[in-house]
Predict the 3D structure of the following.
Amino acid sequence: MSEGSTPHLDEEALQAFLDGEIGPRERELVESHLAACGDCLSRLDDLRHLFRAIEAIPDLPLERDLTPAVLHALRRPRAGAARLRWVAALQLAFAAAILITAVPVVASALEVSARMESWVAAAQVVLQGSLGGWVAWRASVETALAGLWQSMTKLRPAATAVMDFWPWIVAFAVLGLMANGILLRWPRGSMRRPDSAHRGRWS
Amino acid sequence: MEEPTDRALVLRTRQGDVDAFGELVRRYQTSVFNVCYRLLGERREAEDLAQEAFLRAFRRLHTFDADRPFGPWMRRVAANLCLNHLSRASPPRLPLQDETDLAAGSTERIPEAVRLRGERAEMLRQAILELPAHYRAVIELRHFHEMRYAEISQALGIPVSDVKSHLYRARRKLAERLEGHV
Ligand SMILES: [Zn+2]
């Protein structure tokens, strides 16, 4: 019923019109054509019915309540996370042990001021007081390290140049361990990967 | 006793009240399940992913603006999860036929017009499930999440022109099925 040569609206234009996805100028053209063309108007009506029918598909009932399972999963710490937490805790404990043992040695080797040393010693006394068991272990390791150090200094003058750096090496190892422990404890969400990993599918 | 609003439940969940989230699950599980079912076409899988969607929503609740309605956001989380799931599943899954008769059971006492309408809806549901996954995706996002073409394009990582043509073809197929039915 369009006048003369005016072509009918194509299906895509009708759909975009119903979706509200056409520009104002195109919209005007579509509207004026629809006002004059019963064929296109009835095609538009069919489409509108289809849209309504799609959106009116009723929800299917669930056959089981999902709530208990969801709550159960939320209350149970995730296995992976729990394991990570253990690894992190062990690592932090290990780092702390090294720290307690090595701090005085490292401090003296780095020739920090006497004041610092006394502070470290005080801290050590406190720590040892609360962790009595460490004393013996620490002392033995310290003795062993001192013995090793001495034999190195005596027997291999060349190696001692390299060995001058060992306190630094220990310090960095401890820092590395602690940093790693802290990172492992960090909430997972902060390292989330994007959702868009697999996109090619939708084209 | 007044029912707490969704917003109140969201806020309580954020303060660590897991039971408040349980109430949100109770309220939205059916609609969330239906999002998954429309996209996946398999009941068991849809239930599993609906459940997973709630867990994901719980973990991401801090990103949700509590002043907006919870339902649409929740359904979007579910849709994204299912779309990811579908795009990982290769080769493309075949539509499943085993649940076509869902409405067939107890229809005797329902008036004829309602029954016909119901049949039509089930037919349409099935027709959507039989669409290729990328057509199903645009139908879901456009008609059940009221997303704009640009939003769908972003969600699926395809150009707007593809969104348009997918929608066009998907609806054509659905219209043909309906015509064949009536
Ligand atoms: Zn026309």
Summary: The first helix of chain A runs from residue 11 to 18. DSSP finds nine helices and no strands in chain A.
